Fold:
Amino acid sequence: MPGGDLAHGLVARLHAQVRRFVGYGRTRDQCHACRALALKDDLDGALTIATDATPESKVGDYTLRPGGVSSGNYAISFVDGTFSIDPAPLTVTPAGDAVYGGSDLELAVGYDGFVLGQGPDDLGGALEYDTPATASSDAGEYTLTARGLENENYAFSYSVGVLRIDPADLT
Structure:
């Protein structure tokens, strides 16, 4: 029966269209989700897909509810889908400066990837640094790594930075 095949195909197409992924802080338009389907002329209405997810929603799965299309000729059933918001990538890069023989160590960190106007104050955990340099290390450059930050909405990537120990001034 042709009508039955069309209705079955419509349900399958609706289900396939409502499984979408997006990164935290991105709008649905940015990831091309929830696009309307081109439907046959004998269907009434326009496809709608509703969700409680917003660009500010936390990482997780949200239900997508299709609807809005009807027909006097077909029995249309809608299948809910899932809208998954994945963590946004956040790169953390440490840097440091010191003077040979000195006790002052200046550490800094750069971030790339914050969304929604967020910044370091939105992170949890405790920022920790690791380096092979010690208090008695010679002047030069040493690797510097960071770790320990937390936030469920970000996927952290820690880049290797540089700790620069400058020669002491001779006076």
